[in-house]
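wait is this the right file?? whatever heres the structure
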């Protein structure tokens, strides 16, 4: 399997959108060293404090 297909790790960052809805941004680190960012545009409830 090519290294560009193996995900070593990823993190998810919650981003507050301009419309007031929360979105999540995912950062994937691949085995060959490159990072790819994905945005999940599905509205999610805000954090409860």
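ok assuming it is, sequence goes like this
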């Amino acid at each position: 399997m090519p290294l560009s297909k193996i995900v070593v790790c990823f993190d998810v960052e919650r981003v507050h959108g301009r419309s007031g809805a929360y979105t999540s941004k995912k950062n994937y680190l691949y085995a060959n060293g490159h990072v790819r960012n994905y945005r999940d545009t599905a509205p999610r409830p805000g954090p409860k404090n």
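Strands lie at 7-16, 22-30, 35-44. so i think its the right one actually
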